[in-house]
Amino acid sequence: MNRYLAGKTVLITGASSGLGESLAHACAEEKAHLVLIARNLEKLEELAGRIEASYEVNVSVYKADLTEFANLDALSKKILDAHDVDVLINNAGFGLFETALDTPFETVKAMFETNVLGLIKLTQLFLPTMLAKHSGHVINIASQAAKIATPKSSAYAGTKFAVLGYSNALRMELSGTGVHVTTINPGPMKTQFFDIADRSGEYLENVGFFALKPEKVATKTVRIIGKPRREVNLPLLMNIGTRVYQVIPSVIEFFGKSAFMKK
């Protein structure tokens, strides 16, 4: 239970499915009001109806493509005119598991625009109101790929390394302001993410032991909202591996080569 969330307003991007949807349910269960953003308005409205009926909280939905940067200023003004946003969860993102040479540049560009630049833009837009009231929480969904890059995910890992670096710097800048910054670094999750990232379906089969349920990641995330938590790393065994990698990367890369290629 997280008493901090009761009556607070949480904005979640990429909320129409997967982890975003699970985060919406988990926050609503703690009696937080929701502002949900995604490209699919129909799914958002359907989700909002289910959540309002189940949890008796207010849910507002906004259709938006976070790569259309010119529209985000107007969107944020519209949201802030209607809501006092206490928590921003930057969840929207996608990946593609392909070799660096075979990943189309347009896909790389779209990945960075969605995973990194959209996140930064929204943070810049919603952070001032949090600073003004000396309270708030920015939660950025990164990945274990931000800790250890593997073959066939060069662009995706690059975006998540960027999210982690941005978050770490922002956290230091906001020290003493009352606004917290946390990164959530999950390993592979059983969501629609892999419908795009790995159309063969082989990756989830190969890492089935580590694959997380989005509901578990959402629960772990909700527990730390309002607290000065630096990171949440899941699952435990994968996080241990990434910590070892940071100490002896060449050794892990040598012995883990065959496992890393299972995409």
TrEMBL record:
InterPro entries: NAD(P)-bd_dom_sf (IPR036291), Sc_DH/Rdtase_CS (IPR020904), SDR_fam (IPR002347). Keywords: Oxidoreductase. The keyword Oxidoreductase applies. Belongs to the short-chain dehydrogenases/reductases (SDR) family. This is Oxidoreductase. The lineage of its organism: Bacteria, Bacillati, Bacillota, Bacilli, Bacillales.
